[in-house]
Amino acid sequence: MGHAECARLLLKAGADQNCTSHPPEGALPVHLAASCNHTAVADVLFRHANSSLGFRTAQAILLRPNAGGLSALHIAALHNHVDVAQRLLHLVFPVDTRGPQGRTALHLAAMKGLTDLTRMLLKHVSGPQDDASA
């Protein structure tokens, strides 16, 4: 049995995906999935919340930051997990979600020199970018 199937069984048994881990992390299950690159688990968590609570509530749960102010997308970026970052963006995450010091996952990836992740995040950026000449 894989991680996604375990998550599915726990949710079916009534596990609350809105519960956080003990301080100081204060991590939700989606944060843990992002930190371990468990794309299928992130998908299960979103689909379960969406079907049982509706899209807006599911989105709010998955966008909720941990105790340090980091979203699951930030955590995926910090661990250079391109697959789960891409899945999170596909599910609900705006690429411009800001964490501590106003940084996005793109900022974190670029600061760490994570070329593949930076390229993937840049493909998801939409709208006008900050223009130094403006």
Give your account of this protein's structure.
The longest helix has 15 residues, at 39-53. 37% of the residues are buried. Helix 3 (39-53) packs parallel to helix 6 (82-91) and helix 7 runs antiparallel to helix 8. This protein is mainly alpha-helical and 134 residues long. It is globular and about 40 Å long. The protein has helices spanning 3-12, 29-35, 39-53, 55-63, 72-78, 82-91, 105-111, 115-124. It has one domain: Ankyrin repeat-containing domain (Serine Threonine Protein Phosphatase 5, Tetratricopeptide repeat, Alpha Horseshoe), CATH 1.25.40.
List strands and helices in order, with pairings.
Elements (H helix, E strand, L loop, with lengths): L2 H10 L16 H7 L3 H15 L1 H9 L8 H7 L3 H10 L13 H7 L3 H10 L10
Key features of this structure:
134 residues, mainly alpha, Serine Threonine Protein Phosphatase 5, Tetratricopeptide repeat
Please report the distance between the alpha carbons of the first and last residues. 54 Å
Tell me the overall shape: globular
Order of helices and strands: HHHHHHHH
Q: Describe the largest sheet.
A: none
In short:
The chain is mainly alpha-helical and 134 residues long.
